[in-house]
Amino acid sequence: VTGIDPEKIRVDFPILGRKVHNKPLVYFDNAATTQKPQVVIDALVNYYTGLNSNVHRGVHYLSQQATVAFEEVREKIQHFVNARFSHEIIYTRGCTESINLVAASWGRANIGQGDEILISGMEHHSNIVPWQMLCEEKGAALKVCPLHPDGSLDMQAYADMLGEKTRMVAITHISNTLGTVNPVKEITRMAHEKGITVLIDGAQALSHMKVDVQDIGCDFYAFSAHKVYGPMGIGGLYGREEVLNAMPPYQGGGEMIKNVTFEKTLYNELPFKFEAGTPNVGDVIGFGAAIDYISGIGLDQIGAWEHELLAYATEKLSADPLVRIIGTAPGKASLISFLINGIHPYDAGTIIDHMGIAVRTGTHCTQPLMDSLGISGTIRASFAFYNTKQEIDRLMEAIDKVKEFFL
Ligand code: PMP
């Protein structure tokens, strides 16, 4: 039993009051993107109404105020993930750009012919393709750590695959398809014992649990604001100061320079070295409002309620002999992938949608994982702390409708 009263929380999220197909919306696609509370929407409106101006370059009042607000959020994120310094937080467009930044910049300087990059069998395309591109360019090899049948990482195989040639381990904190929570601290410790750099894809983790990058010990941690109740198009990369300082810049342009002549450019210091061009100030400020909002509720409370929802949904879905749950690792995060007796996920999803319920169907950007499981996709219900058990009951009714229609 937790202190969360979802009915009280729900009034903070205007979209949850709307109807879809004439039915009250049930939003179970939180792993794709979370909804935004009114305070985040207000922060965006207030920024563009009263503060809009370019940062770091104006002596004028608005520019100075915008710069202060922009840099305050960096400190907020620093404390949120417990980084040592605020300059270890680089603003990006999101998790995907953060991983691309590391692959392009760190990869350019540190990967050579014959080197290996180790990922896992449950990675999102955004933690596969940037490494493939790097490997192709450098003549390096991408290795994939296998999973156990329940969807947990095979840690024995992982230990065996950390080899002489491994330069980078890039693994997700939480699988967006299976819900598996990986032992990232252990993963990092084992890699660091062999001098291997570690990137953790935190896209799914930040909204569900307290993340402490110093405790994990990783070199990089990538995330997106839109999965943490903030705006789209903004996110971040945590990087350890020493590692970031040793990296070449990512993109060139304004902001990332100290001095430019046609002969030579002196690059700026952290974090600006990695932030070329005018940044997304308004959305940074919206992200700050989202962090304040969920910090006010408390990640422990959020995690506890989401686990109650997960347990309830798992019990209901397991009781249906025609439902097969994909991903049953212990200690899962609050999402469930499942199939209904061979019915194509897209067909099932269409019926479920007509009941006003938003679930995701398909490969969830984890096509190689689907291939290894021998399935074409799943139906995925992913929960947030504003969801209720009554909504899960409505999903069960929708599943009955799907069976009526197709079986
Ligand atoms: N990694 C994982 C595990 C994800 O779930 C996602 C988003 N579905 C991403 C990376 C990419 O995040 P974004 O699209 O916000 O860059």
Describe the protein.
- With 407 residues, this protein is α/β, with parallel strands linked by helices.
- It has helices spanning 6-10, 38-50, 61-81, 95-110, 129-138, 155-161, 184-192, 213-216, 241-245, 281-297, 299-318, 345-354, 367-373, 389-406, and strands spanning 19-20, 23-24, 26-27, 89-92, 116-120, 141-145, 166-172, 197-201, 220-224, 235-239, 257-260, 265-267, 323-326, 335-340, 357-358, 360-362, 378-382.
- The strands form five sheets. It has a seven-stranded mixed β-sheet, with helices on both faces. A four-stranded antiparallel β-sheet has the order 13-14-17-16, covered by helices on one side. The chain has a two-stranded antiparallel ribbon with strand order 1-2.
- Strand 1 (19-20) and strand 2 (23-24) form a beta hairpin.
- Helix 4 (95-110) packs parallel to helix 5, helix 11 packs parallel to helix 14 and helix 12 (345-354) crosses helix 14.
- The structure holds 4'-deoxy-4'-aminopyridoxal-5'-phosphate.
- The site of 4'-deoxy-4'-aminopyridoxal-5'-phosphate (PMP) has 14 residues, from helix 4.
